[in-house]
Amino acid sequence: MQIYVVREGDSIDKIAAAFGASAEEIAYDNQIAAPYPLAVGQALLIPGGGNTGQKRKVRVNGYAYPYIQGQVLSETLPYLTNLSVFSYGFTTDGNLVPPQTDDNWMIHEAWSQGTVPVLVLTPFDQTGMFNNYLISEITHNMTAQQQLIDQMFLVMEEKGFAGIDLDFEYILPQDRVAYADFVANVRSQAAPKGYFVSVALAPKTSADQRGLLYEGKDYRLLGAAADSVLLMTYEWGYTYGPPMAVAPINKVREVVEYAVTEIPTEKIDLGIPNYGYDWTLPFVQGNSRARSIGNVEAVRIAIENDARIEFDQIAMSPFFRYERDGMQHEVWFEDVRSMREKFRLITEYGLRGMGYWQIMRLFRANWLLLDDTFDIIK
Which residue among the candidates 169, 215, 262, 341 is catalytic per the annotation? Predict the structure, then answer.
């Protein structure tokens, strides 16, 4: 498959004729609705004969909330090795807290399409925020810890989960070793039952990196404790930060370069964002708040506002600016060009695969490009 960047005067019919492709297929693959408007600078995935060469095998994980639209889940599952259900919580005494929305339907749908469902465990408090007090309690109180592990296994057997993903964030520095021991304990009890254990890692670039996101995550210890890890290589551009790429490839590369010095490459999954942000300008630290948008939605915003999409050659990410209701906006998102750069990084470093945060919005061109690039393990 090829990638084409829209120029002035292009139409979907002209592009289709130039490539000897079907205009209808281009529109479908790129989720372009009639009457098929295009934005200058928009990257289109052009269907071809398919990659007939030998493709590298990778594992692909996608996170989803139980309220995902059924059609989005059904269309995405063929491209996933694992489906991580977000999320289960717990109390200080080790009682498992299920999602507020029933997840049985998506577990059943995953298995029906040959995708393995995974239970995601997070230390959320009642406000839905990560709580490091919960982490301290569960990592140091062995009675509560065993209670939590036992309850997880009961739910996993009852519902049909085949793995556990531990997504603990803002771990206190003094809990660094205790958390790694907790992961190792979960894995030691999960393995005899045939369950695997993965752990999410904040995007560090050195062992002594400062900050609450990083100090409690020991790459070497956690890499040894878990079956696999997910590098959360996104959120450089985020809700409360200044406008920039969500996952600039230069920054992502720095994390990978450090990770492979601490963790075997065959255990590492690269985190990939399936979203972008729309900021209003001027950005004011502590006051501005970006709006999360889908990648297809971003292109639609550009079209509606006659904005030209640019491509940053350092971040290898698309962006554009527009004005609406007297307000200036800046948008950064992902397209097939930025995804291709992430796929190349996975291949370059021989990583295990990738994990998408998250799959709630359909980005069809990404999945088609992924399938054309890799052999997805099912």
Answer: 169
What is the CATH classification number for the domain harbouring 46?
A: 3.10.350.10
State the helix-helix crossing angle for 176-190 and 142-159, rounded to 10 degrees: 40
74 in the same domain as 159: yes
Q: What pTM does this model have?
A: 0.97
Of 243, 198, 250, nearest to 225 by C-alpha is 198
Token reading at 257: 């370069």
| Strand ranges (E), 265-370 | 268-273, 276-281, 291-293, 310-312, 317-324, 327-332, 353-357
Mind listing the pLDDT tens digit for each residue in 116-130?
999 999 999 877 889
One domain, residues 252 and 128: yes
CA atoms within 13 A on the CB side of 262: 22
Residue 341 annotated among the catalytic residues of the structure: no
Whether residues 14 and 132 fall in one domain: no
pLDDT for 15 equals: 98
